Amino acid sequence: MKILIKKATILDPSSKHHQLEKDILIENGLILSIKDSIIDAEAETIESENLHISQGWTDLNARFGEPGHEYKEDLDSGMNAAAQGGFTHIALMPSTEPCIQSKSDISYLLHQSSHNIVDLHPIGALTENRKGEQITEMYDMHQNGAIAFSDDKRSISNASLMKIALLYAQNFDGLIMSYSAEAKTAENGQMNEGVTSTKLGLKGIPALAEELQLARDLQLCEYTDAKIHFSTISTAQSVNLIREAKAKGLNVTADTSSYHLLLNDTLLESFNSNLKVNPPLRSEADIEALKKGLIDGTIDAICSDHYPQNIENKKCEFNIADFGMINLETSFAVANTALKTLADTALIVEKLTCKPRAILGLDCPAIEEGNLADLTLFDPKLKWTFLEKYISSKSKNTPLLGRVFTGKAIAIVNNGQLSICN
């Protein structure tokens, strides 16, 4: 298959073509030629106003429903949603039913997702059945393709167990991804603790819950001299703690979700259960701290935190609705809209490409002749309205319908395939 990309501005600091407008010819999954002008009548041609191209976007934090909850999202619909959002690589959380906790589970996901344009990277459960009591066979899963280990939205309350897990993972350079929420402090919370939660009469989830757990895990990281990644941090103090840890030389990385850069807790006055997420939407001060942390490098990556829920789990009383929103199709648009006046497009793209790949230990091939064509095409200035027709996910739990965004994925190229975004 031949693909010709016309007049695309290349955003890739590792390429000699960085920030130059070029034509790119791709054949059999490889970049054949990069020139000022290429003509090839046999190639499928992609042309678009203000077309930009980068290495393929990588998401650190998504979840599908397969196995067990395929009615929310199966592998096919999830990878379609990823492709529509511009992602060529997805790190998949293990919170299915049963959860992903054995080498056969990892092999199943890799087999079922093979030959897709989107590369799937399974994350294995850190503890058996995600109960926080017994460490899983991490090494076996690692040997069979597990990219990292996490209990997803469940924090490890047992400090000794977390210490042992960090030490054990060092033996094979495994990555542990920690979600920070001290369980008792956050227990039964519905939204961010603050003025709005008080006004609405909803039990709050204090910022302290995240910060207590994060501070503990940072101490364990320092004690064990291990590496750790913090998923979806959301508070200003969390940013400060990670900044201090990096200054001390700890092997620490972190991400935040794109929607935590745009949406604040006052929006929950609408009682829209699609805004009920975990970690909760925080204050405007927290949002500003997250943005600053991204710009100064404290926060390494932006993720989607894609969490599909069926309508029965969302269209109900707020206090019994499940947490989570879908965001694969909108993640870039949300981040770009939130950051467009503060950061240039190259920095935003960096948080979606080589930064998350470095965390996962994945290659990030430069946009150069002879290299693999693993690419995302996008328009960072395109204004568009997010409508239901743009949703490929089986679930529709998003509060973003009807919003106008700036920036949209146009297409992806990977594994010798092309997918055009709708």
Question: Topology of this protein?
Answer:
Elements lengths: L1 E10 L9 E7 L2 E6 L8 E3 L5 E4 L1 E6 L12 H10 L2 E6 L10 H11 L5 E6 L13 H6 L4 E2 L9 H12 L6 E3 L3 H4 L4 E2 L2 H6 L3 E2 L1 H18 L2 E5 L4 H12 L3 E7 L26 H13 L4 E3 L27 H9 L5 H6 L3 H7 L14 E11 L18 E11 L2 E4 L2
Helix pairs in contact: 4-7, 7-8, 8-9
Report mean pLDDT, rounded to a whole number: 98
Superfamily (CATH H level) name of the largest domain: Metal-dependent hydrolases
What shape does the CA trace take?
Answer: globular
Secondary structure class reads alpha/beta
End-to-end separation in angstroms reads: 21 Å
Number of domains: 2
DSSP E strands, number: 18
Q: Which residue ranges are poorly predicted, with pLDDT under 50 across at least 5 consecutive positions?
A: none
* Individual helix count: 12
CATH class of the largest domain: Alpha Beta
Q: What is the CATH topology of the largest domain?
A: TIM Barrel
Outline the structure in words.
- Helix 9 (284-296) links the parallel strand 14 (251-257) and strand 15.
- The protein has 2 domains: 2-52 and 369-420, Urease, subunit C, domain 1, CATH 2.30.40.10; 55-360, Alpha-Beta Barrel (TIM Barrel), CATH 3.20.20.
- It has 422 residues and is α/β, with parallel strands linked by helices.
- 27% of the residues lie in helices and 23% in strands.
- It is globular, with a radius of gyration of 21 Å.
- Strands 1, 2, 3, 4, 5, 16, 17 and 18 form an 8-stranded mixed β-sheet that branches. It has a 4-stranded parallel β-sheet with strand order 6-7-8-9, with helices on both faces.
- The chain has helices at residues 75-84, 103-113, 138-143, 159-170, 183-186, 195-200, 207-224, 236-247, 284-296, 331-339, 345-350, 354-360, and strands at 2-11, 21-27, 30-35, 44-46, 52-55, 57-62, 87-92, 119-124, 148-149, 177-179, 191-192, 204-205, 227-231, 251-257, 301-303, 375-385, 404-414, 417-420.
- The two termini are 21 Å apart.
- The model has no long low-confidence stretch (mean pLDDT 98).
